[in-house]
Amino acid sequence: MPPRDYDLAIVGGGILGLATALGLAERFPSLRLVLLEKESRLAAHQTGHNSGVIHSGIYYKPGSLKASLCLRGARTMTEFCERHGIPVRRCGKVIVALEEAEIPRLQDLHQRGLANGIPNLSLIGPERLREIEPEAAGLQALHLPDLSITDYSQVAETIAGILRERGVEILTGTRVLGVSGSSPLRIRTTGPELASRFMLNCAGLHADRMAAAAREAVPLQIIPFRGEYFELVPQKRSLVKGLIYPVPDPRFPFLGVHLSPRVDGRVEAGPNAVLALKREGYRKSDASLRDIAEMFRFGGFWRMAARHWRTGLEEVYRSMVKGAFVRSVQRLVPAIHSRDLVPSGSGVRAQAVGLEGNLLDDFHLVWRGRTLHVCNAPSPAATASLAIGEYITDLAAKKFSL
Q1: pLDDT score of 256
Q2: Is residue 378 reached through a cis peptide bond, with omega within 30 degrees of 0 on the bond before it?
Q3: Among the listed ranges 105-114, 132-141, 259-268, 393-402, which one has the minimum average pLDDT value?
Q4: Least CB-packed of 201, 300, 332, 368 within 10 Å?
């Protein structure tokens, strides 16, 4: 049987792959597009385990790809949700300095937010903080009143529905086994064989492996980190009005334990950010010999471990000892006690690590001939997904001469 013929194949059915397909379908409606997802459903991994925050862009270096795409993406995402009836809740956010030593970092963050053009951002004292979050601790805080939350699984489902209406073929339960040839590319899958002029790799946790399947080396490896969460029992949810975050540690890409309301009314606390022993390792007991062996063979992993071992041990300790986790939460809201927190879900972050052990912070795209590999798309990728889709569409139009 001859292979099915397409202009462009997108590998990965998370929100980024879907948003990119949407950008392409809107700009080039005559393109024959196919989206491939190895799971039986879309948005099964990072998208489906997302906290739902529509991020502001305050943490990102002014002028970086993250900063520009997050700011534009937040506005576009909010408009998309409102237009399609997807729940959006404006709950606001405070970032609190809990010690005197954190105040200069909070002030630097304030300047960064102003440079990034975040609207209605203000630096507030403890009195105003208590008005906004009566139970929160803090010497000073940044207040972002416009921050909202949504449900990215619903966003993904809505985008998929639009794509199907526009004739984009979506194949779930279809794993890519290998890519060969050049004009066209021959894509072997667990389902049909495909021929495509171009390919976009949005495979998230498996982005580096997808590049290898296309026989194209990328100078990094995906290292999975599991984010473990608790949630407040229903009778204690009123202790938290909006998002409450600590001042982040600039040495580490994670934001620390924070409190996050969800659109369904739950309030999550977390995460513990620990190394996962499996790329899709959502439970502490999950382990994969292949994934462990790949990590241990990668020199960048050991360089990263040597640089961040102390922070890593702190995260592991907090993961193993609930009391340590509770103390981290109590620094933000002292009225929360151990009995108020019950285990919730977890997610796995696809963190790209370079050869020198550096944790890639910005979005990272690698072009190789007729393929584009999205090698690093950490938070705020969901927030910025529609803007990233437009950005990739612009690049693809030039690189692929669409």
Answers
A1: 85
A2: no
A3: 393-402
A4: 368
